[in-house]
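Q: I'm writing up a methods section and want to include an example of the input and output format. Could you take the sequence below and give the corresponding predicted structure tokens, formatted cleanly so I can copy it straight into the document?
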Amino acid sequence: MSAQLLKRKGTGRPTPAFHVARPPARSAIGSAVLFALYGLPSVGAAQQAPPETPAASAQPVTAGGELQEVVVTANRRTQALEEVPYSISVIGAQQLAQAAITDIASLTEQVPGLSTYNLGARLAAATAPNIRGINATGFPRGFRTFEQDPVGTYIGNSPIDGYYELVDIKQVEILRGPQGTLYGAGALGGAIRIIPNSPELGAYHGSIEVSGGKVANASSPSFSADGVINVPIGDTLAFRASGKYAYDPGFVDVVGLLKRASDSPYAVPLLANPQDPVGSPPIYYSENGWNWQRTTTLRGSLLWKPAEAFRAEVNDLYSHVYGNGGPTVNFDWPGGPDPYNPAATLPPGSHYTEFSRIDQPFNRHTNLLSLDMTYDAGFATLSTTSSYRTTAGAALLDQTWNITGQGGGFLVPYYAGVPANPRFVYSFLFSDRQHTFTQEVRLVSNTGANGAFDYVLGLFYEDQFSEGVWNVFAPGSYERSVAQGCTTPVSAGSVYPECLTIVGPNGLTFIQDDKQTFQDKSVFGELTWHFLPHGQITVGARHFMQDFTDAQLYHDYTFAEDVPPTPHNASASKTVGKVNPSYEYAPKQFVYALWSQGFRRGGANSVPYTGIFQESPLVRYYQPDSTNNYEVGLKGRLNNGLTYSAAVFDIKWNKPQISASLPSGNLVVYNANTAESKGFELESAGPLPLPDLSYVISYAYVDAKLTSDYSLPANNGLGVITPGEIMGKAGTQLPGSSKNNVSATLVYSRYVGPGYGLSLSLNGSYHSPILFDYGATPGFSTQVRQSSSFAIMNLSAALTHNRWTATLYGTNILNRQNVLAPPSQPNQVGGLTNDYTVSRPRELGLRVGYDF
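A: Here is the clean output for your methods example:
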């Protein structure tokens, strides 16, 4: 899907587009002839017309009313979208606003073939996007991902991790299919390039915008404020700053919270009867609008251009998100007594009700500092990108009902005591941090129109450190067992006085601390030979040299297990390639073929070799995985700006990596044998025969499956390594992506009076269900879990006058509740474990902006 950036000159905020000249009217017969000649349309072009006055247009249409073409830099050089010989989608700033796209998760709702497990910002470290179904990991843990992401994500030329909102963005480019040669390890299924606006020399301008809205079932309004300012500093310097603050009110009402002195993970529930520390019930309370979120995103850029041939740009992106709870609800609980305090009754669940014993706060900081320098040497342009990125976050999750239901509750006595603590709380605290330095040097040829060859040569270096910590708490249980007079630790079937719960400091029962280091050194290049006036072929290669180390500490206080953090090392060396011929068979009409490879690093699982947590030697390491993509396609652009693309692909995947929690509780990555993803993509954008009306539409079909069986031994959870504990069958659908995806947007833009312009946009998208499991597998879920089909419709109406723009908007206007993720432990404890992750309900609001 694509849309040209539509904005006023020099501002970072998109404004409605209005036609000053209409394209020639086309009859139905004429349209049919165009489609017969040029094939199916594609979403690659811009639905652009000039803004309110021709002088204010940053990208005007031609005198004949032709829509401007979209320009991308996906191949490290400037090209028209239709010239890029593989499947790529572009979303401009206006389309981001019209479709309510604020982050990567909401981007996946609008781009067919791009998917993620959307579990909210609090679990951003545990989820990653995938393209064309290249993902083999099932329902994610709250812990951060151990394996490298299957999609490379960039802001400008710099890789990025963490959570951030899309602020002051020029466009987003989605590169489908393996991109191993230019984008390196991790671009196994494709790449996402977020292109921000750069500072402008010699122009002082800016914009501000505020918004407010009403979210269904929320007790407070949503609110956001953002702004952009561009300041020239002499003739060679310019500074640009942008920022956004957004408050998203909660729409979930939580029931069954236990009052504590604070929301720290080890705060003990307070006693309703302080005179009875053993049998006292807790103090209950409820909370409306529980799952709120506040996000701050800031970006500063400094451009120095002392000569036409040289430019340097420093960028700093900062993001902070914090909030409480998540978009989870329980509509299955029929109501009934609290399992730990039968004297209290929990009401029935509903579509906007959740049951939790504690508040669940989360936070994340993300920062990206980068320096881009380019020098035009005439024959080629030399570019360097240096970046340092960090992300750190924490999330507290209530697991009381899950531990109660696990295995019929056989672990409950060890943590809740005998008899069970009526104030029992069992919580997970996931925290992670990562810092990464990258350096890339590129030499890109400046071949003229008649040149025979183009080339890209480059060097890349990455040095990364990651740490993830998993803490488990049972606050208050030990103190209660002491008050009971328990003298002997709990054991299976024990009774008083064998009821002493064993914990560490502050009620800590278990800690796992995993630290990873990773280095990547690679050299890459692509060469394009223009062997005919309208024919070319590109060949490329990249060679990787990688080193990975993992060290993991386990300390289980309750079961007296202690595993020191012994480092485990894994190295890899790999070369990937690319062959990509294309031919312009008519003006701006292209046919292409592509073979491209992707690669992802392997690694080590720092699992115990002995004791109750021991694991098989076969899961101590995991191998790199790789993809081979075979693709053919058509794409082009007609004279009136209508664009189209059609692509058919077949991706062979060798040694797919699967990240999972084993029956023993060990968190590992292991390899399946082979998998395959097949499908096709259709995209189109352009004007419709009706005056002032344009469209964007895209469709993707993705069928990703295992193509061979795999079976590995693993700890069965009782300290015994058992054959076949990890297994998969050929023909099993891969989790994490839907088969059918479609997105469509209609835009109507025109003048409605002197100095006034109106733009109406209707946007809708549909995804078929996403699988979360491989099915009935020993040690895993006994049933296949999947999301609901996902459908959403958004509407906006923008009125512009001079420098002002007022926009009425509605997101999810049909107020459909989509189940984004099913319960991880369904139908336990009478249904209290049935937590569904759901989509945000309808929001109606107003945005007001001013350009200066």
